[in-house]
Amino acid sequence: MTSNMRARPQSLLARPQFVSNRIAHPLAWRPALASRGYATEPEAKNAEAKNGEANEAEDPLKKELDQMNKEIIELKDRYLRSVAEYRNLQERTKRDMQAAKDFAIQKFAKDLVESVDNLDRALAMVPEERLKSSEKTEHLQDLVSLYEGLKMTENILMQTLKKHGLERFDPSVDGEKFNPNEHEATFMTPMADKEDNTVFHTQQKGFKLNGRILRAAKVGVVKNQ
């Protein structure tokens, strides 16, 4: 029993000696660490240097790519603007050409309406009761024939002018309200049976060329107050 008790302390004393040997020689474990794949300090520095060089190489490429994308966006914007401007130019040119076509005869039409007025005055000089008279004298028959010929000429002329956009209008026929854009008031008079600003008489008929006023109608307007 005494020998066993003496043996145990010796074994206990032997363990710290083994541990102290491992602690006293830590460099002995470096090969094992290296074999497990852990990088040493010089290798880590080399890896960092390589990463830095790779980043420096990538930065110019990234900047160049960003610049190219920016230029593409600018070129696309310029292209879209150019297309829009070209289309607007086409529309303006089309409208201008149509307007030039519609109103090319404006000066000619202004000169022509005077002749139409004279023809209208000639027809107005024939009293309506003479045309409806039951008398069949030679003189009256000649007058009726002349009137019918002039009326037919006027109708054909107005149809031809209408084909080219020139139309005549008489605001007193439907009792229109006075419109300063289309009518020219030459006189005013009170009329109890009509409302104010009603056109009751046409002194000179108006003309429109493709919907635009070529000459305003000269009219008489009701003014009760």
From TrEMBL:
* Annotated function: Essential component of the PAM complex, a complex required for the translocation of transit peptide-containing proteins from the inner membrane into the mitochondrial matrix in an ATP-dependent manner.
Cite the record's Basic and acidic residues compositional bias ranges.
42-61
Which parts of the chain are coiled coil?
none
Q: Which residues form the signal peptide?
A: none
Report what the protein is called: GrpE protein homolog
Its localization reads:
Mitochondrion matrix
Which coarse location class applies to the principal site listed for this UniProt protein? mitochondrion
Q: InterPro entries, alphabetically?
A: GrpE, GrpE_CC, GrpE_head
> What is the originating organism of this protein?
Scytalidium lignicola (Hyphomycete)
**Entry keyword Mitochondrion:** yes
Q: Where is this region: Disordered?
A: 41-61
